[in-house]
Amino acid sequence: MKKIRIAVVDDHSLFRRGLVSLLSDMPEFIIVAEAGNGQEALPVIKETNPDIVLMDVNMPIMSGLEALIALRQTDPEIKVLMLTISQNDNDLIGSIAAGANGYLLKNAEPETLRNTIIQVMQGNSVLSPEVTEKVFESLRRSQQSMGQTLLSSREVEVLGLMAKGLSTRQIADTLYISENTVKTHIRHILEKLEVNNRSQAVSKAVEMRYILP
Q1: Contact at 8 Å (CB) between 159 and 211?
Q2: 23/4 Cα distance (integer angstroms)
Q3: How far, in Å, CA of 102 to CA of 116, rounded?
Q4: Same domain, 41 and 96
Q5: Which end of the chain is more exposed for a tag (fewer CB within 10 A), N or C?
Q6: How many domains are contained in the chain?
Q7: What pLDDT does residue 14 have?
Q8: pLDDT tens for residues 107-128?
Q9: Which residue has the higher pLDDT, 39 or 194?
Q10: Predicted confidence (pLDDT) at residue 15 exceeds the cutoff of 90
């Protein structure tokens, strides 16, 4: 069976050497590259063309997240597994958003690491159990935020007419609805956009691209 070619990127040399030794003893893997930070890693990865990169997040000179972003621009298909001690939300969500195929904590058992690498190579996305809930919580917060600010199609229509300077009565006549309904739409628009008046609503709607300037 063809061995999985691995690059290990970690600034802690003792951990990196231990990891290389551990993986080298597993028959499925072969280590083709090592690096101590993201800046060192990019040319080495390009030269050795590994199947998967095991990358720490927090490193000097160039972090793992910065390296991941750069790597995705040149090689979007390469597998990248973030291997870190960080459970920081920014590191976790940032890595996933940047295209990491997995996020595994360094306290994982050797067999867990082995299985995770194989799963990632099979096209699966893998997260440490300790950080999975953080991802779901972030998604929940994002959905709640979108729900608070997302305007309905009718509200966007009202906004467009407000931007043209139409009065409440004129908007009602244009849309064939009552003035009270227009006032309700405007109140909802101000609440969702978190502004105090019509002009602020129009300005923010332009910024958020709900309407054209």
Answers
A1: yes
A2: 10
A3: 8
A4: yes
A5: N
A6: 2
A7: 95
A8: 999 999 999 999 999 999 888 8
A9: 39
A10: yes
Beta carbons within 8 Å of 9's beta carbon, 6+ residues apart: 34, 35, 36, 37, 38, 40, 41, 53, 54, 55, 56, 59, 64, 67
Domain boundary among 88, 107, 133: 133
Question: Token digits for 133?
Answer: 């809930």
Element (H, E) at 15: helix 13-24
The rounded distance, in Å, linking the Cα atoms of 145 and 205 is 16
Strands lying side by side in the sheet with 52-55: 29-35, 4-9, 52-55, 79-84, 102-105, 126-127
Q: Write the pLDDT tens digit of every residue in 126-148.
A: 888 777 766 656 555 555 554 45
Q: Is residue 213 part of a domain?
A: no
Q: Look up residue 121 and give its two tokens.
A: 């190579």
Given a contact cutoff of 8 angstroms between Cβ atoms, the answer to whether 59 and 36 are in contact is yes
DSSP structure class, residue 105? E
Q: What is the mean pLDDT of residues 3-17?
A: 96
Query: Do residues 127 and 162 share a domain?
Result: no
Contact 56, 84 (CB under 8 A): yes
Sign of the CA dihedral 115, 119, 121, 127? negative
Residue 40 pLDDT more than 90?
Answer: yes
Nearest to 151 by CA among 160, 141, 142: 160
Residue 98's domain comprises 4-133
